[in-house]
Amino acid sequence: MRDDRALLARAVELARRCPPSLTAFSVGALVVDADGTVLAEGWSRRRDPHDHAEESALADLGPGWQAPPGTTVYSSLEPCSARASRPRTCSELILAAGVERVVFAWREPGVFVDGEGAELLRAGGVEVVELPELAAAARTPNAHLLG
């Protein structure tokens, strides 16, 4: 069985690996199967200055990868619903992969865009769980952006 809190805490810790940025949040993400096995992990700017955490983790699973039943994405920040640097948002990538659940810690503040990822995912049939008790830890590597 999955332990949502522990897996989300692991995603929050991955955000600390992000190279600093003044134009994007530091985010960590995991892709986890129904049994709790971590299939992939990612963080913002992992390989490229424009990488988002969920995008990075899903990319590790290969082009066209489709989530097995019960797959969950854990993200320290609500998956993005708008972006200028790439053609597809993280919410779109999650939906395209057929992920059934998303668990996140911190709703995207309106620093760069208006976050609507949770709403878009729910509208696409994804179960969305917010664990706000981990939001303060998710904000820590982003404190310089929250001034």
Automatic annotation (TrEMBL):
InterPro entries assigned: CMP_dCMP_dom, Cytidine_deaminase-like
Where does the CMP/dCMP-type deaminase domain start and stop, copy by copy?
2-128
- In terms of superkingdom, the source organism counts as Bacteria
Which ranges of the sequence are coiled-coil? none
Q: Pfam families of this UniProt entry?
A: dCMP_cyt_deam_1
Alphabetized PROSITE patterns for the sequence? CYT_DCMP_DEAMINASES_2
What name is this protein filed under? CMP/dCMP-type deaminase domain-containing protein
